[in-house]
Structure formats: C-alpha cells, structure tokens
C-alpha cells in the first residue's frame, strides 16, 4: 500500500510540469521575436507611403506610414523581408534593427499587365491596340452601372447612357462600330465568359447585374490584332471585365457606402399658366367661346422630385490554408429616379476562390456572380406629356365620385360624358396609376483549370467551363377607367395586365494550351491553340389580360437558339526584348448561316519594335519608353436579330386571324423572307501605333491611326415585291470605310513627399463612310432610318458617300433678316418653293471627335479630383421642338396643349417635321465628376483605414444646343429622361 501512487497527486504534479514547460517555451518564443524598424524611400529619397512589408514565408506583415517608416516584429533574427509597392520592383532583404530601403521604379508596372484573349501580356510586350484601366476609386461618383466607369476614360471608346433613369443601359461604341443593320455592340467578356449582349425584354441593362464595386480592371481591345483571337462578334471591339480576386494575404474586410441626392438640372422652357391663358385667344382658329381653366399647374414640377439613393458593399478576402485565396462580396443598391415613382433596386453576390493543387501545378479558378434587379420603371412619354399638358387645369378634379369616374379622379379631357380618344395623357396619372416593373435575375459563372505540366512547366493546359443564365420578367398593370386606357389598349377604359417573361441561356466550353519558353536568353517564344464551343438559347412569352382575367390580345411567343464553334491559335515571338511579332488565326462557324457559308477564317499579324531598348536610346535620361506597333487583321460579324436568316421559316397566325372551313377554324402559316446565301460580314483593320514615355514615365501615353474596311455588310434592305416572301430581308450587301486617330497623354507634373498631381487626357477623331449599299448604287438608293413618330416617318438615311445616320431633311428657307419662312424650302436648283424636297445634309448623329479629361491633386491625406468628357461634330434633331407648332395649342375636339416658348417665338403655324431648321449642332463638354476626399490611416492598426468623400456628378454641361441635353446617341431628341445632378457622400472602411 505504501508504494501505490495517488492518481490525483500524480496528475497535479504533471500539471505543474506542463505549466513550467509552457512558460519556458513562451519565454523562448518571445526571446526569438525581433523588432525591426525601417524607412522606405524612392530614388529621390522621398518616402513611399503604403508599401507592403511581409516576413517572407509567413503572414506576418505591415505597411509603411506617411513618412515611409515601419515597425515589425519578426519571428527570428534571420528573417527575410519582402517589400512590395505598385510601380516599384520588389525588394527582398534580411531583417535588421534599423533598415534603409530604396525601391527602384519598375517600368513594367502592375497596371501594365493587361488581359487579352485566352491569356495576359505585359503592356510593354503588347503589339495590338490594347488599353487597360482600373475604375477610379478616387473620383468615381455614383456608379450605378458598370459602364459608368468607362465614360471618357479610353480613347476610341464612346459611352452614351440611354437616359438619366437609374440602372439604365448605355450604347458603347469602340471606334464608332463597323456595321449597319447588324449589332455594333462590342463583345463583352466577364472573367473569361463572353456574355450574351442581346436585348433584354423590358429594356434591362445588358451588364446591369455587374456590381461596379467588384470590378478590378477594364481591358479594351480595339484593333484586329487584339480582337481577332475572338474572331466572331469581335468586329466592334472587345471589352474584357476582370473582377476582383482573393489575394495571398491575411483576412481582409472592406465596407463601402454611398448616400446620394439627385436633382433635375434643367427643365423645358414652356409657357406658364398665365402666359398660356394670354396666348391661346390670339391663335387663329380657337373659338371665342372656349374657356380655359383657372388652375396654375407646373406639370414638370409635378413629375420631378429630389431623389435619394443608397449603396452598400461588403467584401471579405483572404486565403484558405496557403494555396486557396478567395474573395466574397455582397452589394445592395437602392436608387430613386428624379421622375416620381421611378426606383431601381439591385442585390449582387460575387464569390471566387482559386485553390492550387499538386505543388501549385494545378490552379482551379471558380467564379460565381448572382444578381437581382428590380426596376420600377416609368413610361418615359411622361416627360413629353408634362411639356404638352394644359397648365390651366389641376392634377385632380376633386370629384366625390372619383373611384368610378373616367380617369379615376385625375383630370382628363371629356367630350360630353365620354373621354376623348385622342388626347395627351395626364402625366401625373401615368405615374400614379401605372405599375411598370422589370425584374431581372442573372447568374454568370465559370470554372477554369490551368495545369502546368509536371517536368514541362513551360506548357500549360487550360479548360474553361462557363455559363450566363438570365430571366427577365416585365409587367405593366393599369386599372380600369385610368385615363391612359381611353387613348390606348382597348380605348374604352378597360384595364391592362401585361406580363412577359424572357429566359436566356449561354453555355461555354474552351479548351486551349499555352507554351512559352526563352531560348538563349534572347529568343522569347510562346504559342497558344484551342477549341471553343458556345450555345445561345432564348425564349419569350407574353400575355395581355384585363384586370378581371379576360384575354385582350393573343399571347406572344418565340423560342430560338444558335451555336458557335471555333478553332483558334496565336504565336508570339520577341528577340532581345526589342523586336516582336504576333500572329493569330481563328476559324469560326455560326449556325446562323447555311453549311456552305458557315465557316469564317479570321487572321491577323502585328509587329512591335521597342525603339527605347536600342543601344542609342537605352541610357537616355529623357526617353523612358518608345514602342512602334503595326498590325493588320480581319474579324467577323454574325450578330443579327434573326437566328435562322438562311432558312425558310413560317409565322403562325394568331387565333383572331384564323380561317374557317366548314365548322372548324384553322391557323394559317405565313412564309418569312430569307436569303440562303447569307454569310459572314468581314472587317479588316490596319493600325499603326506609338507608345511613348518620358522622364521615367512621368509623362506617357500612346498615338494610334487606323483604317477599317467592312465588306459583305449584313444589311436589312427592301427588295422588289414578288422576289421574296417579304418586302424586306437581311442579306450581305454594302461596304463601309472607317478611319480614325487616337491620342492619349498622362502626366505627373508634381510628385513630392506631400504633394502629387496627375493629369490625363485622351482625344479621338473618327470618320465613317458608306461606300456601297446595293448591287447598283444611285442617288435615289438609300435605306431610311431614324424613326421619329408614326408609320414611315424617318429623318436619317444610310446612303453611299455619306456617314451612317446622316440626317435627311428639307432645306429651310430664310428671309433677308434671317427668320425662317414657314413652309418654304430651298430646292436643288437654288429656287425656293413649298415643295418639301429632302436632301442628305452631310450632318450625322455620330460625333467626329470626342475628348476625355481627368486630373487629381493630393496633399498628405487629402485628395481632390475632376473628370469630364465631350463630343464634337455631331448633330441633334430636336424632335421635341419640331413636333410643335402654334396651331397645336388647340384641337378640333376641344382640348388644349401647351407649347415651348421657342414655338411661340418661331411662329410656325403648322407642323414642319422635316425642316432642317430643327437640326442643331450637338457639340458639348461635360464636367462629369468633382470629388474631395480625406483618408484616415491606422485607425486601430497599420492595415485599417477609412476614406470619406464628397462628390458632385454631372456638374455642368457646356453646349450651344437649345434642348436639355445634346448627348443622345441616336441624335434624335424625344422623350428623354433627363440626366440628374447627383450629390454624394461616400465612406470606405478597410481593415
């Protein structure tokens, strides 16, 4: 019994041993910690702020402060520090007590690495016309949609929003586009997935579901050498959007918010109620017995409002273990429009992870984007109706029986006890009684696999599986007796319940291999080859019922699909980092064409010469970069509305158009027009460019000149009756030339310890001309376009020898005092008569040139920035003014309409729709954004920061145009939702 050990006593003793061991170990660990202090400078002995200092092989790190100083506790005296900073070469240095580190500028800056088709390349090694930008975090303003970040930033790229409504889409043109009836939209590639950019039912934004806060870079591929690797759909350029990824760092959080207030900058100058009451009796034809109202209603004031918005984004990034960086973000946007009842709401999710396996030889990149957009839209005719509506009548009648009255208590024009069938709709009633919604759910994702072959790491095998799935639901509900239901729908007050649903699917498979190797340190060779498959499918269904469920019109339905197959390859060779050549070849097949015309072959070749690397310039203290680029290539176009243009197809009749035989009703089938020989539209491009940099790239930029020729234009033209099943078909006919000049310059005039000033400017000149339009061309041979109102009313043409979208109008005659003579036009022989002879005005809606400008000034933690853009040489047809005339104030039915003050002053008694009097220069320059920000650094540790920004968007527009806004891509000003001025307060917290 004496030798028996007490278990409790034995365990207690061991506890003391373990505690003692832990204390010794802790002391040992503490003893191994070494405090390192240092100062990081550039070659001019100026501090580098925000440099990353990392103990190599660990996640232990910090950043340098405003004086370039840092303090870091390392785990051992033999630790090695890795110092990195954008624009400077990495430094590795053994840790010591007091370190002075001088970082050398790296001419191959991080932002100069650009994403191209199926790979990436340093900007200095690119032979094509490629521009990469990062969204400006310092002067971004309110960016509801992704394309907002591109406005005025890239030479050769013109971005015009379709309206000022939040979440609206935009027209994006790279080098003005190369097609007529086919799509002129650029190909958009999001994280390796070429997305479907066809129209979304309900007017949704093609890339509206992409959260601008998630975008890392835009890369714009402009010339054929850069775009040819995409072959199909690349004739109009390519925009590659790369979203933010996880980084090989510690856990990081970021939260940003934006609170905004939007206001209307300008309204149309119309007659007030008192002016209207005074003017109407002076108009000939107005009965003396007519009595105007006693109210004074500003209808524009009734439909507009001060709009509030909010945006919130939260992201988490880090890594799982050591080999799987990830990033996850969520975003929420809620933006009211300046037109009452208009609201745009969006939820976004973006997640990505990039694990590595097999000793980092296999990289898997998984990306998922999900978005939901809820757009409460407004009928944009309310803008024009607010101009026209009689200001002497109230918004509402005040009737005690409003619930059963025609108009539901809102003022409408009555003819006795019946509402007038032809009248302007009450704009306030339009807003209050119509519920118009567009709900879009979209998911874009891909899984890409990159395998570096073991023991042959120069060879990489890639597979990319991607998808783009979208559902759009558009609905419009109007109650019984609403005023709009007497001027549209059944025109008897019957309400409306319209529902449509569009489904779109796009699936992608890419298999390709990359090989690169440097031979004898001077011969850099790389090759890429692959296969691509893409399937596009869409389906649409729509129904129209009354609120009681009665079917008002036959359902509408269509379903369609097409396929693209591709083989592609690229060879790159450079000698001694001076002479470069790139050759690409892509063969595409589109199911939109018959077998004999299905395949298109698109080659390109480009040469590059780094002149600055030659011996006679290599040591220059002034010239830091000079590279000459030459390229030629072909791209294809097959993006047309009809997926089966070469086949005989039939349209099934609606039930109300059936024929009765005996006691049965039968559907009829109408054959559609087709062209069995339709084939690829082809664009060939020549490009010469020069990249330059001076004073260690304190001044840098590029110059490009290009010429494009498009043949076999996919054009929708009229054909002789009886030669086809339709009077209009899409076929290959016509040619067009396009040439342009692009220039960009960026400079850093001041860069000291406390001050930094950057300036950037880009300029583009472009000219397009149609050189062939039909088998036999003549002056009378042209295609009408530019619809204004009603059937067959157009004001633009496609015509040989003219720019696309040239205005086709009658030449207004003027008296000796320069006043327009109503109804009199100058004839081709110089005489003046009432004959409304139209002519090609040689004035187009397309700008001849456009300009972008930005500057930023920072002092310590403060920053101030301005950006703007403009367009010149374009013309705008003021349809809002042309649609009005003095006699329009009174209708023979007995109702009144307001007019512009300009209409009263001009004095046209009758409508002059086709007079070039209403064609105006559209030149403008807009100050897009002004922002002032302050950054709080080291809130609670070295990696935490908070930035506060106050910004103003759409600050001012300088123009001679008489309308509200000259920036209209179509060049026809009608029913335009105005762009608001936006005041915003933003915060960005990072830790």
UniProtKB/TrEMBL annotation:
It is a multi-pass membrane protein. PROSITE patterns: TONB_DEPENDENT_REC_3. Coiled coil: none annotated. Residues 425-955 form the TonB-dependent receptor-like beta-barrel domain. This is SusC/RagA family TonB-linked outer membrane protein. The keyword Acetylation does not apply. The keyword Transcription regulation does not apply. InterPro entries: Beta-barrel_TonB (IPR000531), Beta-barrel_TonB_sf (IPR036942), CarboxyPept-like_regulatory (IPR008969), Plug_dom (IPR012910), Plug_dom_sf (IPR037066), TonB-dep_OMP_SusC/RagA (IPR023996), TonB-dep_OMP_SusC/RagA_CS (IPR023997), TonB-dep_rcpt-like (IPR039426). It is found in: Cell outer membrane. It comes from the Bacteria. GO terms for cellular component: cell outer membrane. Residues 123-238 form the TonB-dependent receptor plug domain. Belongs to the TonB-dependent receptor family. Its main location: membrane. It comes from Bacteroides oleiciplenus YIT 12058. Keywords: Cell outer membrane, Membrane, TonB box, Transmembrane, Transmembrane beta strand, Transport. Pfam families: CarbopepD_reg_2, Plug, TonB_dep_Rec_b-barrel.
């Amino acid at each position: 019994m004496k030798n028996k050990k007490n278990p409790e006593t034995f365990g207690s003793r061991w506890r003391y041993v373990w505690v003692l061991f832990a204390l010794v170990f802790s002391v040992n660990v503490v003893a191994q910690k070494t405090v390192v202090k240092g100062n990081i400078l550039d070659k001019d002995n100026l501090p580098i702020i925000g440099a990353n200092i990392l103990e190599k092989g660990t996640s232990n790190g910090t950043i340098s402060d405003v004086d370039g100083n840092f303090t870091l506790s390392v785990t051992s005296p033999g630790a090695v520090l890795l110092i990195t900073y954008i624009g400077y070469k990495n430094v590795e240095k053994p840790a010591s007590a007091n370190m002075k580190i001088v970082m050398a500028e790296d001419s191959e800056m991080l932002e100069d690495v650009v994403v191209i088709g199926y790979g990436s390349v340093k900007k200095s090694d690119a032979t094509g016309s490629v521009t990469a930008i990062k969204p400006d975090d310092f002067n971004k303003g309110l960016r509801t949609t992704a394309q907002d970040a591109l406005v005025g930033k890239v030479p050769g790229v013109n971005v015009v929003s379709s309206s000022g409504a939040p979440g609206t889409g935009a027209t994006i043109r790279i080098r003005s586009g190369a097609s007529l009836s086919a799509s002129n939209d650029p190909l958009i590639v999001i994280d390796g997935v070429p997305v479907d950019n066809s129209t979304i039912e309900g007017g949704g934004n093609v890339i509206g579901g992409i959260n601008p806060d998630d975008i890392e870079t835009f890369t714009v591929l402009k010339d054929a050498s850069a775009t040819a690797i995409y072959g199909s759909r690349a004739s109009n350029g390519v925009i590659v959007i790369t979203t933010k990824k996880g980084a090989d760092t510690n856990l990081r959080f970021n939260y940003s918010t934006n609170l905004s207030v939007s206001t209307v900058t300008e309204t149309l100058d119309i007659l007030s109620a008192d002016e209207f009451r005074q003017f109407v009796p002076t108009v000939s034809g107005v009965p003396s017995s007519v009595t105007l109202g006693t109210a004074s209603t500003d209808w524009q004031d009734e439909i507009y409002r001060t709009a509030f918005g909010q945006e919130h984004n939260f992201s988490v990034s880090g890594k799982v273990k050591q080999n799987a960086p990830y990033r996850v973000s969520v975003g929420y946007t809620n933006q009211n429009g300046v037109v009452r009842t208009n609201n745009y709401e969006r939820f976004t999710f973006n997640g990505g992870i990039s694990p590595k396996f097999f000793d980092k030889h296999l990289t898997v990149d998984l990306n998922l984007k999900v978005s939901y957009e809820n757009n409460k839209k407004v009928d944009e005719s309310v803008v024009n109706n607010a101009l026209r509506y009689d200001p002497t009548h109230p918004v509402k009648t005040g009737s005690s029986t409003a619930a059963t009255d025609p108009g539901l208590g809102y003022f409408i024009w009555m003819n006795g006890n019946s509402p007038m069938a032809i009248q302007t709709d009450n704009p306030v009633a339009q807003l209050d009684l119509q519920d118009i919604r567009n709900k879009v759910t979209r998911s874009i994702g891909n899984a890409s696999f990159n395998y570096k072959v073991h023991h042959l790491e120069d060879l990489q095998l890639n597979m990319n599986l991607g998808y783009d799935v979208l559902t759009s639901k558009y609905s419009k509900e109007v109650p019984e007796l609403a005023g709009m239901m007497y001027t549209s729908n059944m025109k008897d007050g019957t309400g409306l319940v319209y529902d449509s649903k569009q489904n779109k699917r796009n699936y992608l498979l890419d298999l390709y291999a990359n090989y690169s190797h440097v031979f004898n340190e001077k011969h850099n060779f790389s090759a890429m080859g692959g296969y691509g498959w893409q399937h596009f499918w869409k389906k649409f269904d729509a129904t129209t019922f009354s609120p009681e469920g009665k079917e008002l019109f036959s359902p509408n339905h269509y379903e369609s699909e097409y396929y693209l197959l591709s083989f592609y390859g690229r060879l790159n060779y450079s000698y001694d980092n001076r002479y470069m050549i790139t050759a690409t070849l892509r063969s595409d097949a589109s199911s939109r064409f018959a077998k004999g015309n299905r395949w298109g072959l698109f080659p390109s070749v480009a040469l590059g010469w780094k002149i600055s690397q030659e011996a006679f310039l290599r040591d220059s203290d002034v010239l830091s970069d000079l590279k000459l680029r030459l390229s030629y290539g072909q791209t294809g176009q097959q993006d047309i509305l009809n997926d089966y243009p070469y086949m005989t197809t039939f349209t099934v009749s609606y039930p109300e158009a059936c024929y009765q035989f005996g006691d049965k009703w039968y559907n009829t089938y109408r054959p559609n027009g087709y062209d069995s020989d339709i084939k690829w539209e082809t664009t060939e491009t020549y490009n010469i460019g020069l990249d330059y940099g001076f004073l260690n790239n304190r001044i840098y930029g590029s110059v490009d000149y290009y010429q494009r020729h498009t043949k076999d234009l996919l054009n929708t033209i009229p054909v002789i009756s009886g030669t086809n099943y339709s009077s209009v078909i899409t076929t290959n006919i016509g040619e067009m030339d396009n040439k342009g000049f692009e220039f960009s310059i960026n400079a850093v005039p001041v860069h000291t310890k406390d001050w930094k000033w950057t300036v950037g400017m880009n300029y583009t000149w472009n000219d397009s001309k149609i050189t062939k339009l039909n088998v036999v061309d003549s002056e009378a041979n042209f295609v009408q376009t530019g619809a204004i109102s009603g059937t067959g009313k157009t004001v633009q043409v496609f015509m040989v020898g003219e720019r696309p979208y040239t205005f086709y109008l009658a030449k207004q005659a003027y008296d000796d005092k320069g006043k327009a003579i109503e109804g009199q036009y100058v004839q081709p022989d110089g005489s003046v008569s009432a004959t409304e002879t139209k002519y090609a005005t040689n004035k187009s809606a397309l700008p001849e040139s456009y300009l972008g400008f930005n500057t930023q000034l920072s002092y310590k933690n403060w920053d101030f920035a301005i950006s703007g853009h403009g367009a010149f040489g374009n013309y705008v047809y003021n349809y809002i003014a042309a649609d009005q005339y003095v006699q329009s104030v009174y209708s023979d039915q007995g109702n009144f309409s307001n007019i512009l003050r300009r209409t009263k002053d001009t004095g046209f008694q009758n409508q002059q729709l086709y007079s070039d009097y209403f064609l105006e220069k559209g030149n403008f320059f807009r100050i897009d954004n002004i922002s002032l920000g302050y950054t709080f650094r080291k809130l609670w540790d070295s990696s935490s920061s908070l930035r506060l920004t106050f910004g103003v968007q759409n600050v001012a527009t300088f123009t001679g145009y008489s309308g509200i806004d000259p920036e209209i891509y179509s060049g026809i000003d009608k029913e335009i939702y105005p762009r608001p001025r936006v005041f915003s307060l933003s915060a960005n917290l990072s830790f």
